[in-house]
Every structure is written in structure tokens, then in C-alpha cells.
Amino acid sequence: MEDALKLEYEAKNGWSLLDEDARKELTAFCEGYKKFLDDAKTEIEATNVLTAAAKAAGYADIDDVIASGGKIVPGMKLYAVNRGKSCAFIAVGKDDPTLGMKMIGAHIDCPRLDLKPRPLYEDSGFVLAKTHYYGGIKKYQWVAMPLALHGVVFSDMGRKKLFVTLGEDENDPVLYITDLLPHLAGGQMGKPASQAISAEQLNVVMGSVNAYKPPETDKPADAEDESDEKAEEPKNDSLKTLILKLINEKYGLKEEDFFRAEFEIVPAMKAKDVGLDRGLVGGYGQDDRVCSYTAFRALFDLDEVPEKTVLVYLSDKEEIGSMGNTGARSCWLENLILELVHLYDPSYGMLELRRAMRNTKFLSADVTAAFDPTYADVSDKLNVAFAGGGIAFEKYTGSGGKFGSSDASAQLVTYIVDCLDQAGVPWQLTEMGKVDVGGGGTIAQFMADLGMDVIDCGVPVLSMHSPYELTSKADVYWTYKAYMAFIRA
Q1: Which of 57, 338, 361, 457 is deepest in the core (most CB within 10 A)?
Q2: How many CA atoms lie within 13 A of 345 on its CB side?
Q3: The domain 112-182+198-211+235-267: what is its CATH number?
Q4: Neighbours of 67 (CB within 10 A)
Q5: In what order do the strands lie in the sheet with 310-315?
Q6: Burial level of 43, CB count in 10 A (0-12/13-18/19+)?
Q7: CA atoms within 13 A on the CB side of 306
Q8: Whole-structure pTM over 0.90, yes or no?
Q9: Cα(439)–Cα(434) distance, integer angstroms
Q10: What ranges do the domains of the chain cover?
């Protein structure tokens, strides 16, 4: 009986594998992760935060290396930025890149609400802003909660940019989308959940006070006393005009600037520990900034020259199909690899690029659904990720019949899990939901199109795509350790 039991697979608990020192390391790591979630609520902010950290650590801009006619040598650390919305970080290894690289790819865009090109309007004592939702959301989750505005505005033919953030500072006002009170919501509550709140009802409250006073300025000491003079009558401006004046005073913007800006509406809530035991992280945008942060840190904390060149790729637009010139379907990553190959040996060209990609192992670092006992019927308990069980691997994603999946080979799965077993890192091999219930997709299929060996892996998440998602601290920590083990193997 004892020998028979050893033949069976026994799932590991990520918490039980932590000694006292590892728990301290986990706590410190997750504090840094929560700060990243608060500082990087948009893809532009995530790019800026991580690139700043890389620069401070001595990473060089690959464009500067190219412009100087330089070459890459083992130990060199580089970064590359694509239009401010996606980025890559590179540790040059000892091997010729045509022998293959180690790559980890995640995405830094998240479900949200975008302001429409012409968003502002006035109606019945309110100034509202119209939105267009981005990615797969449950629209009813975005009402009756504090929201913040994040964005960027360009001027001078696109040469100057202004970053806008409203609702995050403790003294800032927040924004809001109203919902119906239950007393009047009989019709609304009788609709399917997908129709209870329509897209055109996701209108953000920007203001409501039909009065305006310019900011007070300090009166010069020698100024004449004009208190007896009749105060100037306030102008009878519309409420929308008054709100625009407040925006202009704070940011110097006019309504026309909204037409060409990129403004995103995100939850105005900070990342927090969840549960009396503080075992979970709650926060916005963990899909997929949890994998982005853990992958970046695994490379950032690498203190040795790797055998193979390591590249961490953080893409944009994954939540809407990876389209556009900052998404994983674009040729940007392929061009970046070609630049690396050429910097290694100027005689190398497209053939060597193809060889490099064919020999590369790529971890598609994206989250999966964690088992939720409240909604147990959507999961196959033998093949689902459990919170606290460590990094979750998915041999294939897609939906019904593996549609839209790259389906990793058994050889690649064996290589990866052997790396983790040797490093003592717990892992789970999972699916996302029952076969005919749902599914999902990642950037894995696009990397497979380039000829790479690729598998999906990442942190299990509860309440995925909601404004406030949950992850286990153990999974965050062990995913970081898993990426590090892959890099070092």
C-alpha cells in the first residue's frame, strides 16, 4: 500500500514550503508588488515605472547601443520601449543568440473604461463624461464605486506630453458612475446581468456645482483697499464651462485637448492585504501586472551572467486581442530580436533571426482562474488552479476544443517542470474552467507563430477582470521564484 501511494501525484501547498526566512522575503516582495499596482494603473505608467527602475540599475537603452554602432557582450543589460506602452528588458547571455534565448512575456494593459473622443456633456445639473469600455468586463461592477482618471495629453506636434492623474491623492476628489436605487430598479434587476447596465450608461460624474470662483491670490502689501468697490458679478457660465475652467486651472487643458488625449478611468482604490491572516493581495489590474512584475523582478534580481540571453517582454493590447503596433501581434518584438542578433554579429540577418526564435523557450506569463468554492460548478476540480498552490501552468488555453490555443509539447512541459522541481518551486498543471463553460487566450499563440516553444503560466486569480482582483501572496512569491528558476536553468 505504501509503495502504491508513492505512485500517485500529491498537490503541494505553497504556504507549507515556506520557512521563516522565506515568509519574510515573501512579505517584503508583496509589499513592493502592492506599491507597483498603485503606481502603475495604466500601461504607460507601468512602462515608465519599470523603465525608471531599469535605468537606475544600469540598464542601457538599446537604441543608444544601435546608434553608437556598438555590439552586445555577455553581462550587458538593456531595455527597449515601444511607443511608451510596451517594453522589454534584456540580460545578454554567454551563448550565441541563434542557439536560443529564454523569454518571458506578459502584458501590462488591463480591463478599464476609456473616455470617448468627445466625452463631456451637461445634463440636469451634472457634467458627465461618456466612456467606452476596454476589454472583457462585467459592466455592472463599475458603478457606485470611487474612480480615478489617468491619462496623457500631447502638444507641440506630439513632442511634449503631460501626464494627468486625478483621484489617487488622498486630497483629490474621486469620480463616480451612478446606479439605480433598488426601489426603482425593478426593470433593471429583471434583465440578464450583461444587460443590467448598458455601455452607454457608464457615464462618469465630473461635477455638479453651478458656481465658480477663481482661486484666491495673495494681495500685495501695498495694494489699495478696494473693499468698498462693488464686486464684479460672476459670469453666467454653463456648468460644463465651469468644470472645464477647473480642469484648465489644474492641467492647462481645453475641451479640444480631450479629443486627442488618452484618458482611462480606473478604480481609485489602493492595493491592500485581504483576510485576517493577510494571505491575499487585493487590487486593480493584477491581470496581468502580477506576471509583469514577477517576471521583471526575476530578471532584475539576476546577479549572474546567464548562459542564454534572457528577455522579458511586456506587451500592450492583450485584453483586446493583441492588435496594434504595441500589441504582441505586431512585428516589434521580432524586430527587437533581429536587432539583438545583429548586435551580436553584424553579419547575422534574417536566417539567424529565424534560428534564434526556433531555438527559444518562451513562458507566456499570464494569469488563470483560481478555484472559487462559491462558484465551484464552473471548474473541473482535478484540473483547476488553487490559490496557494504555486504557479499554474496551462498546456493549452483557448476554448471548447482548444480553439485558439498553441498547445505546448510534452517535451517543453517536462523541461519546465524539471527546472522547477530542481529549484524546489511548487507548480500546478491546470485548465481554466470546464471544457464547454469558457476559456481564454493569451499571447502564447503569437509567439508560437514565430516558431518558439511556448507554454502559458502564471498566478491564479479570483474575481478576474473585476475592478478589485485577488491573488494569494504565496502564488505571487512562487511565480517570481519559478521565473527565476527558468532563467537560471
Answers
A1: 457
A2: 12
A3: 2.30.250.10
A4: 9
A5: 60-61, 77-82, 86-91, 310-315, 102-107, 361-365, 453-458, 391-394, 427-429
A6: buried
A7: 27
A8: yes
A9: 8
A10: 8-110+284-488, 112-182+198-211+235-267
